[in-house]
Amino acid sequence: MDREVQFAKALEAVKKKAKEQNYCISKEQVEEAFLELSLSEEQMEMVYQYLHQHKIGIGEQVDLEEYLQEEEKDYLEQYLEALKALPEMSEGEKEAVTLSAMAGDSDAQRKLTEIFLPEVAQIAKLYAGQGVYLEDLIGEGNVAVAMGVTMLGAMEHASEAQGMLAKLIMDAMEEYIAENAEESKKDKRIADKVNKVADAANALYEELHRKVTVEELMAETGFSRKAIEDAIRMCGDKIEALATGTTS
After folding, report:
1. pLDDT category, 245, cuts 50, 70, 90?
2. For 59-75, how does the pLDDT look when each residue is reduced to its tens digit (9 = 90+)?
3. pLDDT reading at 93 higher than 90
């Protein structure tokens, strides 16, 4: 097997194991994963740095708040402060509420949702720093819990139900991040298209010393009318080198 491919697979295995262990992994587990590659101390140190950057603790959990922006820390502090108004429950009470929620009790389902609100905030910290707001991650997680507490009927044990809710929270946040990333790519494609048309129009403007028409730009660049008119609409008709009224 190619060494680079083997390294990538070992790294993914370490990340998966760490996720299963609440984003924490022992040094021995990491060393075992990379044993066949015979990495140098310097290379292993780079692996540890990479894991730390991805919020994975070696031997102990990392302080997730160190990855947050100041405004995110402020929001999180206010959010958690507001949750202190909720009644505290023992582990036994939480299990009883979970079992009742599994049985379809709507009041218990509401209470279980409240119980999981702090958990949502903790999980959100794991996914922060990936191009989305912490507040939005918490919102997505809260929605997932509110829906999830009504879907526990098939579970047999309280711990199983609680694990399912945690997974639903993570899935919702991961999906939101993925959707946001795709939207960002779309926005970049749009911006690139507008810039290409604007740059071409400006170049022709400099050559002709006057504003140019869509037809002239089409002839000069080979851009289709639709591509040019789409770019004009996308930027709010603000390509100054183009003559106004040329999209009709």
Report:
1. low
2. 887 777 777 888 888 99
3. yes
Burial (CB count within 10 angstroms: exposed 0-12, middle 13-18, buried 19+), residue 235: middle
Domain boundaries, the chain: 3-62, 68-180, 184-234
CATH topology of domain 68-180: Rna Polymerase Sigma Factor; Chain: A (1.10.1740)
Q: How many CA atoms lie within 13 A of 28 on its CB side?
A: 0
Tokens of 69: 């922006």
Q: What is the DSSP string of the chain?
A: --HHHHHHHHHHHHHHHHHHTTSEE-HHHHHHHTGGGT--HHHHHHHHHHHHHTT-EESS---GGGGS-HHHHHHHHHHHHHHTTSPP--HHHHHHHHHHHHTT-HHHHHHHHHHHHHHHHHHHHHHTTSSS-HHHHHHHHHHHHHHHTTS-TT--SHHHHHHHHHHHHHHHHHHHHHHHHHHHHHHHHHHHHHHHHHHHHHHHHHHHTS-B-HHHHHHHH---HHHHHHHHHHTTS--TTBPTT---
pLDDT (tens digit per residue) in 181-209: 777 666 677 777 788 888 888 888 888 88
Residue 191 contacts residue 235 (beta carbons within 8 Å): no
What's the confidence (pLDDT) of residue 39?
A: 87
